Task: inverse folding
């Protein structure tokens, strides 16, 4: 992988939120939502970020979008570190990195028609455009997300969840982004609709050369779409590898447990495999355990795991694992 093909490179990213403070406002405790993660995404590829709710996926995505200014670390977008630059310096990147989230309903103005929602996004760059071009662009965007252009006169509440998500995608595409942060974009949809939206993401990637940071709590969702997958636990990446390798050769005990909860389609495989039931709950990131964050729930935890954080090490061929037992 040449450096030139890397669209996004995240280094030692940390986002700590103040949780408790003294009476004069000095924070004494922090929620370490993201606590030192490294990854990179090749242009035109999909990077899947998975893990249970609360592990820091959305926070990591919001740092990439620079909704948050990270506590520490770097975010190189096309080679430029955008982690600390000012809002005016960020301007050229704002349109280039777009967000699609779980249910766009909350962000859609109920009084605005589908057409005018897309129109607003088309005009958002402030450039002067002829009315005929604007109309053509709206039609083009609706067609791209496989919504009938005749839907332009409808309102968000008249649409199904899947249609609304298509509208959310059309709105994001209006900015001609290169990178899209997809934060659990199908979690709120019925399983049958989920597959349609995933297929749409894939065909848009092919047509437009898009790069995705695809966030999901469900491994079954990312297994189809991601090229590379990182598994997060309590603000850390515990395993990262090619998507195929994840299913063939999971190494981290947490990944194994997550995988064992994903249904397989083959009946015989299903009979043979054993479920690993995770005991206990995900600890709060305010009271993160010492050493390996997973050790209180790990069946293989040794003394070292309780005191020392295992580094994320390449076990060969770009398969990274953070576990003392490897
Ligand atoms: N703005 C915030 N202020 C304080 N704590 C936050 C904030 N956003 C998220 N958190 C905390 O950070 C942790 C990670 O949250 P989040 O990134 O939303 O996880 P995920 O998207 O994986 O479910 C959670 O413990 C959450 O409560
Ligand atoms: Mg989230």
Result:
């Amino acid at each position: 992988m040449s450096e030139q093909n890397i669209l996004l490179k995240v280094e030692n990213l940390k986002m700590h939120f103040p949780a408790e403070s003294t009476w004069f406002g000095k924070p004494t405790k922090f929620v370490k939502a993201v606590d030192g993660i490294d990854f990179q995404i090749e242009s035109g590829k999909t990077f899947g970020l998975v893990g249970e709710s609360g592990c820091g996926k959305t926070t990591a995505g919001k740092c990439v979008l620079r909704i948050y200014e990270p506590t520490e670390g770097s975010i190189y977008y096309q080679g430029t570190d955008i982690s600390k630059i000012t809002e005016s310096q960020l301007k050229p990147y704002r349109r280039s990195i777009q967000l699609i989230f779980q249910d766009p309903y909350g962000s859609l103005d109920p009084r605005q028609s589908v057409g005018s929602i897309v129109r607003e996004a088309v005009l958002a760059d402030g450039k002067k455009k002829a009315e005929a071009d604007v109309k053509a662009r709206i039609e083009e965007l609706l067609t791209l997300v496989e919504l009938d252009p005749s839907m332009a006169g409808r309102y968000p509440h008249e649409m199904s969840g899947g249609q609304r998500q298509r509208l959310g995608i059309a709105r994001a595409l209006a900015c001609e982004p290169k990178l899209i942060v997809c934060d659990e974009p199908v979690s709120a949809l019925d399983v049958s609709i989920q597959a349609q939206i995933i297929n749409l993401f894939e065909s848009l990637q092919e047509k437009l050369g898009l790069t995705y940071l695809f966030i999901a709590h469900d491994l079954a969702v990312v297994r189809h779409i991601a090229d590379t997958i990182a598994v997060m636990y309590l603000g850390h990446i515990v395993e990262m590898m090619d998507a195929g390798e994840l299913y063939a050769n999971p190494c981290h005990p947490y990944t194994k447990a997550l995988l064992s909860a994903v249904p397989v389609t083959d009946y015989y495989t299903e009979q043979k495999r054993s479920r690993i039931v995770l005991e206990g709950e995900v600890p709060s990131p305010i009271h993160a355990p010492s050493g390996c964050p997973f050790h209180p729930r790990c069946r293989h935890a040794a003394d070292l795991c309780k005191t020392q954080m295992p580094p994320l090490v390449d076990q060969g061929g770009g398969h990274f694992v953070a576990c003392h037992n490897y």
